[in-house]
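General statements about sequence and structure are easier to judge against a single worked case. For one protein, we set the task of working out the structure tokens from the amino acid sequence alone. The sequence in question and its structure tokens are set out directly beneath this paragraph.
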Amino acid sequence: MFKTLIEECQLRNYSKRTSESYLYFNKKFIKFCNKKTQEVNYKDIRSFLLHLISRGYSSSYVNLAHNSINFYYTQICKRKFEKISFQKREQKIKEILSKEEIVKLIEVTDNIKHKLIISLLYSSGIRISELIKIKLNDIDLKNKTLLVKQGKGKKDRYTIISQKNVTEIINYISKKRHTKNQYLFDSKQGHITSRTVQEILKIASKKAKIVKQVTPHRLRHSFATHLKQNNTNIFDIQRLLGHKDVRTTKGYINNNQNDWTKLIRSPRDY
């Protein structure tokens, strides 16, 4: 049914994740309204989005569903519907990990491969999908940089690594079995999976007794916030993270209340 949708995503060189999301939401929508694609109307789309909202899904989830349906019906099927507004995104304070918590995560991890995975996620601010695909020749130990190839949006970029990473990488490679596999974190299938990385963080956070949820994305948010707290220019952080719009970068940064509330006294204390 959605062959043209898949083909159009391929022609536009959309990422696998984007293609899968578009396909997923359009299948979900058709199942919900129980109609053929040519019978779908404005009220069906509106009812589906309201259904998602009533189920408590986030504005990001609802907007992704909305965008997926729009793409298929307006751009591929060339249908015209009455405009439905996208949801305003919730303004939530991003919870990050402290530097002490991240150090503890690394210290409680004994396996040198797992230790390097956690350390690199934080020190470079890369996404989990970018971490698992790092190749040995992407790393410049001398200049402490990492070339991220074809990241989100099919873009190459450079990010930084720490001096500690340099030592960790040299130590890891010296003990790594020599194969023709060029991935830093190799496996029999080529490279490790995202699921493996998530499991490593889950185990480390449990050992470190960290109550907060520890995810690769939270380490990325922590990277951005800690750089900003160290007075790094926001546009430099944007380039390191690979964001197209600086507003996305600003959304990654937790403006820690302790940074400014300490400077203000309650009127009762005057």
About this structure: Residues 99-256 form a domain with the hpI Integrase; Chain A fold (CATH 1.10.443.10). Residues 16-33 form the longest helix (18 residues).
